[in-house]
Design goal:
The protein has about 220 residues and is of the alpha/beta class. Helix content is about 45%, strand content about 15%.
Length: about 220
């Protein structure tokens, strides 16, 4: 099986040679950072439609973590185009964080469409170092389709715990490595190197549940 994966990886790499060449001469990263937000604008619209019921279920009890005033202070990591805004309770005070500044213009459009929210600020930073966000300042932290592309999952999860108030919640929705010995797992192994390059660091083979289990949250629902 390992040999077969290597052969298919080689074939995919040949097809993706122009991208590898651009990456080798140092041009691909800039192109990807500019084009990826545009792709995500269309992808997240399709994804939200397909995952509507799942997201509604995931975010159904957000308001339970609001402060006594009824206001919910929410931090979204890897906010992208603001695809989750429609699921947040009215009056939520939303802080957005993303390492790619090119998402900002799409984020502004989403903010304009979601007047039920109180937008606080857009922080350009990686989740591994959120020093701009104070300790214990958030009721809820959200990340969807983010842990697949970060440099250090454990560091991000420790930062999440730092910025959350005691007893508050972290909401996540991630794609992960498929079960071994399945065709899905086979193609994840084949496509992962090129996928990682094309989709701005996204990895198909992450076993993110392991990092979540090791993060020492008081309660974990997977």
């Amino acid at each position: 099986m390992a040999l077969l994966i290597s052969v298919f990886r080689l074939l995919v790499s040949i097809l993706a040679f122009p991208i590898y060449l651009l990456n080798f001469i140092g041009l691909w990263s800039g192109i990807c950072k500019r084009c990826f937000p545009c792709f995500m604008k269309y992808f997240t619209a399709i994804y939200n439609e397909k995952m509507l019921s799942k997201k509604q279920e995931l975010f159904s009890n957000l308001q339970a973590f609001a402060a006594p005033s009824g206001k919910l202070s929410l931090l979204e990591l890897g906010c992208g185009t603001g695809a989750n805004f429609q699921f947040y309770p009215p009056g939520s005070k939303v802080t957005c964080l993303d390492p790619n500044p090119n998402f900002e213009k799409y984020l502004i459009t989403s903010i304009a469409k979601n007047r039920h929210l109180q937008f606080e600020r857009f922080v350009v930073a990686a989740g591994e170092d959120m020093h701009q966000v104070a300790d214990g300042s958030m009721d809820v932290v959200v990340c969807t389709l983010v842990l697949c592309s970060v440099q250090n999952q454990q560091q991000i999860l420790q930062e999440v715990r730092r910025v959350l108030r005691p007893g508050e919640a972290f909401y996540f929705m991630e794609h992960i490595a498929a079960e071994p010995s399945t065709w899905t797992h086979f193609w994840q192994q084949v496509l992962d190197p090129v996928w990682n390059l094309v989709f701005d660091g996204c990895k198909l083979t992450r076993e993110s549940w392991k990092s979540l289990e090791q993060a020492n949250f008081s309660k974990l629902k997977l």
